[in-house]
Amino acid sequence: MSRHAAATQLPQTGIQKPVQECDPIPPLPSDHVLGSGAVLFPGVFDQHGCPLVIFPVDGQDKLLKLSKAEVVDFINHFHALLNKKQEKQSLVSVVADLRLASASTTRFITETLLLLEEHKRTVHSVYVIRPKKKNVVKLFLKLLVPSMSCTSSFRNILLKEIPELSNYIDRSQLPPSLGGYFLYCHRSWVSFIK
Q: Given CA atoms 51, 140, 184, 22 in this order, what sign does their dihedral have?
């Protein structure tokens, strides 16, 4: 039996199935999405081995200039590319620092995650730095409560402060803005991708 013949579910690593069963890689996102820096796929991982998708604080103002579908396509493209390179299919984990986020940004990120899950399970865990505004926290929790039409199967980890992230993600995998020491330059990453 070849190494790709049997699909194995490993919940601790988020691995679902071998690469032979992966969907084709979606097209490269457009330049305005790639260059926005509103969502990042920097090639780092959480402690479950899931690649991280990061919604950085300094990109939140740019996020609302994109559509949810564009962000989903961005995540799907780089997730599929990474799965092909690793010869296994894993789920992604998401990090969002919502401490100072507006209600519209929080709604956008939450609805994007639900849209990402609409057709197939993609997200393993969502690590959220808790919003400081009570109305934004309520909105976030309300949007993620499973409804009859769409249930989210990912784990929600609500954190009070950034240092708590290191309980789930090694600091070598986090940029300085999230309490780590992983050096990341979005402009260089875009040049490399192109």
A: positive
CA pseudo-torsion sign 60, 28, 70, 26: negative
Question: Cα–Cα distance between 28 and 103 in angstroms, integer?
Answer: 30
Give the Å distances, CA to CA, from 63 to 19, 38, 115, 135, 172: 31, 5, 15, 20, 26
And the tokens for 21? 């069963």
Report how far residue 131's alpha carbon sits from residue 134's, in angstroms, rounded to the nearest whole number: 7
Side-chain-side CA neighbours of 120 within 13 Å: the count stands at 12
Q: How far apart, in whole angstroms, are the C-alpha atoms of residue 98 and residue 140?
A: 10
Which tens digits make up the pLDDT trace of 4-53? 333 333 444 454 444 445 567 878 888 889 889 999 999 999 999 999 99
Distance of alpha carbon 107 from alpha carbon 137, whole angstroms: 11
